[in-house]
């Protein structure tokens, strides 16, 4: 079920929310090499495919809303919605982005999220999130995402997608991210958030949610994602951006 209200019992001021989001962005940058170039590329693709700025944007598994905020500021007339399952990350997004971005609680592992999000979006982004779902749910996700897009709308899926074709020169030249360091920074970030008294009730809810849905850590090659997107009815699908083992697929509904 979707909700736009802050969680009861959460005491998190705006300064704290902004600070935790800033360090989150650093942590994510440790996992995804050249994250800023990915974000710039996906924004340009969205502007190019429609010939104008998107007016309805949905960021799925958007976490504390770093990308959602960038898109809302780049396209001030757009209605930007962030959906996530994690109550802690949603609280950080709401604490920092009040009014700029609509936040919804939703679970991508079941089709109920489609009705909450609604249709007719020009752009859907899913960054470093699909690997939480097992293959059968990733397949269903592409169908569900297409139903949320307007005709000609763009889906961008960025995640670990190893290259099973001819590797790009950029991939070969780029140093691999230090995954152990990124994992440590992730653990430290969550350890720090765990100390924030006002977030404790939400941390307990988070633990319960992920106990039922442990991350699948599913990684498929880019060609698999392209094939699944086409099977789901996307007219065009291909790799828009790659850096090492990370890639972004673009698919046009
Ligand atoms: C690694 S984080 C990436 C967050 C954000 N996209 C970013 O790049 O900063 C993965 C996100 O997926 C969310 N997530 C995982 N499983 C989910 C599910 N079943 N439904 C909705 N969100 C989910 C997590 O809560 C988390 O916010």
Q: Can you walk through the features of this model?
A:
- There is one protein chain.
- Strands 3-2-1-4-5-7-6 form a 7-stranded mixed β-sheet, with helices on both faces.
- The protein has a single domain, classed as Vaccinia Virus protein VP39 (Rossmann fold, 3-Layer(aba) Sandwich).
- With 253 residues, the chain is α/β, with parallel strands linked by helices.
- The protein binds S-adenosylmethionine (SAM).
- The site of S-adenosylmethionine (SAM) has 18 residues, from helix 3.
- Keywords: Methyltransferase, Transferase.
- This is Class I SAM-dependent methyltransferase.
- GO terms for molecular function: methyltransferase activity.
- Pfam families: Methyltransf_25.
Task: Provide a quick synopsis of the model.
This protein is α/β, with parallel strands linked by helices. The chain has helices at 14-31, 35-50, 66-74, 87-97, 112-117, 135-148, 169-173, 179-193, 200-212, 222-231, and strands at 56-60, 79-84, 102-105, 121-127, 149-160, 236-243, 246-252.
Topology (elements, then pairings):
Elements: H1 14-31, H2 35-50, E1 56-60, H3 66-74, E2 79-84, H4 87-97, E3 102-105, H5 112-117, E4 121-127, H6 135-148, E5 149-160, H7 169-173, H8 179-193, H9 200-212, H10 222-231, E6 236-243, E7 246-252
Parallel strand pairs: 1-2, 1-4, 2-3, 4-5
Antiparallel strand pairs: 5-7, 6-7
Helix pairs in contact: 1-4, 1-8
S-adenosylmethionine binds next to α3.
On the 0 to 100 scale, the average pLDDT is 91
Strand fraction equals 15-25%
Shape: globular
What is the count of β-strands?
A: 7
Estimate nothing, just give the exact number of structural domains: 1
Q: Tell me which ligands are bound.
A: S-adenosylmethionine
Distance between the termini: 26 Å
Strand order of the largest sheet: 3-2-1-4-5-7-6
Instruction: State the CATH class.
Output: Alpha Beta
């Amino acid at each position: 079920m979707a909700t736009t209200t802050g969680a009861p019992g959460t005491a998190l001021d705006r300064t704290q929310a902004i600070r935790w989001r800033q360090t989150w962005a650093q942590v994510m940058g440790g996992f995804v090499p050249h994250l800023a170039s990915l974000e710039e590329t996906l924004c340009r693709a969205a502007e190019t495919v429609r010939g104008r700025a998107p007016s309805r944007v949905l960021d799925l598994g958007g976490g504390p809303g770093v990308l959602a905020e960038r898109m809302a500021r780049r396209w001030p007339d757009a209605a930007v919605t962030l959906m996530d399952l994690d109550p802690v990350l949603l609280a950080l997004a709401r604490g920092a982005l009040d009014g700029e971005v609509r936040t919804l609680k939703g679970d991508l592992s079941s089709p109920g999220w489609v009705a909450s999000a609604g249709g007719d979006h020009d752009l859907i982004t899913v960054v470093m999130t699909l690997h939480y779902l097992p293959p059968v749910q990733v397949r269903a996700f592409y169908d569900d995402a297409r139903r949320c897009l307007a005709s000609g709308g763009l889906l961008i899926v960025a995640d670990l997608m190893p290259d099973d074709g001819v590797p790009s020169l950029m991939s070969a030249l780029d140093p691999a991210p230090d995954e152990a360091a990124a994992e440590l920074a992730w653990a430290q970030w969550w350890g720090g958030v765990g100390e924030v008294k006002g977030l404790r009730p939400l941390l307990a809810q988070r633990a319960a949610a992920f106990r039922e849905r442990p991350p699948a850590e599913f990684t498929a090659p880019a060609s698999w994602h392209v094939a699944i997107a086409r099977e789901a009815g996307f007219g065009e699908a291909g790799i828009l951006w790659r850096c090492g083992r990370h890639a972004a697929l673009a698919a046009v509904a």
